[in-house]
Amino acid sequence: MNVLSDAAAEKALVKKMNEIDYKMIGQDVSVYYGDKRALFDVNLGVRNNTVTALIGPSGCGKSTFLRCLNRMNDTIQNARVTGRITLDGEDIHDPSIDVVELRARVGMVFQKPNPFPKSIYENVAYGPRIHGLAHSKADLDQIVESSLQRAGLWNEVKDRLNEAGTGLSGGQQQRLCIARAVAVSPEVILMDEPCSALDPIATARVEELIHELRTNYSIVIVTHSMQQAARVSQRTAMFHLGHLVEEDDTDKMFTNPNDQRTQDYIMGRFG
Ligand SMILES: Nc1ncnc2c1ncn2[C@@H]1O[C@H](COP(=O)(O)OP(=O)(O)OP(=O)(O)O)[C@@H](O)[C@H]1O
């Protein structure tokens, strides 16, 4: 009886997922750090040209799920991921997948801005150069300029491209990191609390940018700020103790969530 209902539930889930324009789909994703299980059979899709916010109390598994999407958990020694994750229908754990290429397609922006100790120009040019995206210096110049433009930083740095990236303000450094991610033409951008080290003005600038980037990319953002999730995302997924509690339109999640835990978290009753 259980087996039958499980099969029916899975069929219904797959049918629902097939009807939606997903860029990435995680099915039954579990993550273990050694013996400790951090994620429990998470089923969550990332829609095309949509910002998906991952919310939930500290330690609930948001960053762990995010890192599954470009196999960053591979870099953590005792981490083990099970389940299936696809990018445009292709299994990202398939042996034929080149992880370096995957991470160019699914880029990441971290909590703390982490520019390389190199010039502003080199920070952006590095990725396109190693991925062979530029055929000439003029090509590379063009990619650097357009990436800085898309990250909303070009006007502030165009006259100082040879200065150190680390000399920029925190907010500018984070936009430089976004330019660096964008420079390799990703399809998905993962952001792990990208504004937590920024002041309100720099945060507003990055949020504006996320809004603009959605036209071209699918974005997944981990945030502790309910206001930020409500401002920047169209879909919100709530995690609790390693489980996906629910996922829905952001407006619905913030006005009429299905699960009491979401309601309580949003109202600041825990977390
Ligand atoms: N490298 C690691 N080794 C062992 N355990 C880990 C590791 N990274 C995360 N964990 C554990 O996995 C669980 C989920 O952590 P994760 O960082 O994904 O949560 P989170 O929701 O992103 O938390 P926060 O909001 O505090 O960043 C936590 O219990 C955490 O302690």
Through-space gap between termini: 37 Å
Return the average pLDDT rounded to an integer. Answer: 92
Count of discrete alpha- or pi-helical segments spanning 4 or more residues = 11
Whole-number radius of gyration? 19 Å
Give the low-pLDDT segments.
none
Largest sheet: 6 strands, mixed
Which sequence of SSEs, written as H and E, runs from N to C? HEEEHEEHEHHHHEHEHEEHH
What characteristic shape results from the CA principal axes? globular
Ligands bound, unique: adenosine-5'-triphosphate
The multimeric state of the shown protein is: single chain
| Helix-strand category | alpha/beta
Helix fraction? 25-40%
Beta-strand content bin: 15-25%
For the secondary structure, the number of strands is 10
> Any idea of the CATH class?
Alpha Beta
CATH architecture: 3-Layer(aba) Sandwich
The CATH H-level homologous superfamily: P-loop containing nucleotide triphosphate hydrolases
Classify the fold: give the CATH topology: Rossmann fold
Whole-number tally of structural domains: 1
Quick gist of this model?
The protein has helices at 2-18, 62-68, 99-105, 120-130, 137-150, 154-157, 170-182, 200-213, 226-232, 250-255, 260-266; strands at 22-33, 36-47, 51-55, 79-87, 90-91, 106-109, 188-192, 218-222, 235-240, 243-249. By secondary structure, it is α/β, with parallel strands linked by helices. It has one domain (13-266): P-loop containing nucleotide triphosphate hydrolases (Rossmann fold, 3-Layer(aba) Sandwich), CATH 3.40.50.300.
